[in-house]
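Schema walk-through. Below, the input block comes first and the output block second. Nothing else is stored per chain. Lengths vary across the set, and this one has 446 residues.
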Amino acid sequence: MKYNKGLSTISVVLIVIAALGIYFLQKNSGIVLKNTDQKQQEQQGKNTPTPNPTTEDKKINDISYTKINSDNPIVIANNKFTFDIYSKITEKGKNVFFSPLSISSAFAMVYEGASGKTADEIQSVFHFPKDMNILRTSFSSINNDVNNASNDYKLSIANALWVQQDFKFLDKYLSAVDQYYVGKATNVDFVNKTEEVRQTINQWVEGKTNNKIKDLLAQGTLSSGTRLVLTNAIYFKGQWEKAFDKKLTSEQNFNVDNNTKVKVQMMKKTDKDAVFKYGENGNLQILDLPYKGNKISMMVLLPKDNNIASLEKSFSFVKLNEWKKLLSEKRVDVFLPKFKIETQYYLADTLSGMGMPTAFTGNADFSGMDGKTDLSITKVIHKAFVDVNEEGTEAAAATAIIVGVTSAGPDFSIPVFRADHPFLFIIQDTTNGNILFIGKIENPTI
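--- output ---
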């Protein structure tokens, strides 16, 4: 995992790349092809396939959108997945940052083509609703809301499919991804122009993330056995509703732990306008910092005893909702470090361990994509970037899924929120609580 020192805007881009290839038996090619007997045995043991889109399914423009709220099944599913995967990838002494919504969005496109046990496991890990119409309309509603233009901030999400030009994918699969996730398919030649295609996909990612996510696909990531790459990118850039004064930023100590201190650029806001949603209990301080437009905010969770491990143990979907009830408008003296970090995760083993191992094996069933059972996921790569400063935040993240052939009571005193030790933070949509990005700062200087 790589971390850079840094900036102060949040640009998050999540690119999920599913490179779908066919497994041939030859070891040199790294691809395995299932034989007829194996296919028949596996088909007999599969569960009832997940319904695929039909010609009667409505186009995305025909969907009746409703205002997203906390009852949106995908908002709830995404937030549950956020805490599930956070607990698996957090490490002592390391910063964390990723976009759960981007990962979920990319896997929703994969889920459209999954059947049987493969589909059941993906549905369980991501908490997707089993009703495909609810899944599709919920994601369509979220995407429509995210991409709704605003003069106050930049927030966008985009999907794309990159398909091997001479490999036959089912029209109904490509149509469903296009209709419900606005994922346009582009024909490419993984077989003969692997490097050229890799650069093309990386350029698409850079373009959708304001050049914050570069080289998502390293050399060697794709191969002549790649058949499909699914990409999802999410980007955010917002200015604080109440900006920090650069002249008040100063070098101060940040207590990484009880024995380690590092110097950071600490931002400060203690004037009469420093009124924010704030809450606390015996162990925790919570501060909600809105961006212009008051639709997106950063919630910072600061343990009082500098015990980030203890906070992480209690950090859950249920607890977060409980803690949000503590928030009320209050004058607060705020001290928050500037930070800029870059992360990269390889999530195949993580997701497999969370309960969806079949998708990564020769037993995978993505027959909803090509009518066969010869595709499986080989790699899942996630890359993210966040930059926080006096003006605001920029965030970007990218995930690649590669499939081959084979995210109290009244108190009139002024609390001090001094984030001079490790803390958690969430960038969320305040209208529905949808978690766009989540992170942990253990050391702002790495």
